[in-house]
Amino acid sequence: MPNQNFTLFSGGAQGAENQFGKLAEYYGMSEVNYTFDGHKIERTRGVRVLTDEELTQKDVSLTYVAKLLGRKFTNAEKMRKVLQTIMWQVESSHQIFVVGTIQEDGTVKGGTGWGAEFAKICNKELYVFGQVKNGWFKWEKGEWITVEAPVITNAHFTGTGTRFLEDNGKKALEELFSRSFK
Questions:
Q1: Number of neighbouring beta carbons within 10 Å of residue 36
Q2: Mean pLDDT of 3-12
Q3: Distance of alpha carbon 36 from alpha carbon 34, whole angstroms
Q4: What is the C-alpha separation between 8 and 89, in angstroms, rounded?
Q5: Residue 68 has pLDDT above 80, yes or no
Q6: How much is the pLDDT for 59?
Q7: Nearest-angstrom CA–CA distance, 42 and 161
Q8: Which of 15, 17, 30, 101 is most buried by its number of CB atoms within 10 A?
Q9: How far apart are CA 60 and CA 138, in angstroms?
Q10: Residue 2, pLDDT above cutoff 90
Q11: DSSP state, 50?
């Protein structure tokens, strides 16, 4: 399938999402970056500002997400909107790629973790590049398994992750795209 038939769904934030967007642009793909009014993002290409009504369609209990991820949210209104945009990203795609840290309890650290958890709930094909463990992992049958070299095979895929992209995470994304789109 030609590269222009692929679409990256992301959030355009600094770090991993910005890098996913740069690579999608370099490889000639479409890009959709979900955001909301007043939210600062780095990507300017493919920006899709969600309305309040669209955000409400993906409403989620912050208590539920906080318990699931084992964290507290300080700015509830903004965080709710961020979580809602992540749900739009995941729901728009068939494959989900995340850069972050897999914790001992199997969740992914930070707000990024909601994208991974929602992908699990939706039974999406989910890969995480663990920067600390320096490797790719796939969620399969209720556990993380090590994988050598995942490939983007679906025309609609999500790229999300930490704002703190390390050199190994950046390299992992570059290699993911070069493997997938020669």
A1: 18
A2: 96
A3: 7
A4: 9
A5: no
A6: 83
A7: 14
A8: 17
A9: 25
A10: no
A11: P
Determine the Cα–Cα distance for residues 165 and 181; give it in Å rounded to an integer. Answer: 22
Residue 78 confidence (pLDDT) above 90: no
The confidence score (pLDDT) of residue 64 equals 81
Structure tokens at 107: 């969740």
Residues 6 or more apart from 130 whose CB is under 8 A from it?
100, 101, 102, 136, 137
Residue-wise pLDDT for 123-169, tens only, equals 999 999 999 999 999 999 999 999 999 999 999 999 999 999 999 99
Q: What is the DSSP letter of 60?
A: -
Give dist(CA 24, CA 43) in Å, integer: 11
- Whether pLDDT at 80 is above 90: no
Cβ of 17: how many Cβ atoms within 10 Å?
Answer: 27
Say if CB 94 and CB 157 are below 8 A apart: yes
Amino acid symbol at 83: L
What range defines the domain where residue 19 resides?
3-180
* Number of independent structural domains in the chain: 1
Q: Measuring CA to CA, which residue among 137, 112, 108, 110 is closest to residue 125?
A: 137
Q: How many whole angstroms separate alpha carbon 20 and alpha carbon 24?
A: 6
CATH code where residue 7 lies: 3.40.50.450
Reduced to 3 DSSP states, what percent helix, strand and coil does the chain have, rounded to the nearest 5? 35, 25, 40
List strand residue ranges (DSSP E) for 11-93, in order: 30-35, 47-49
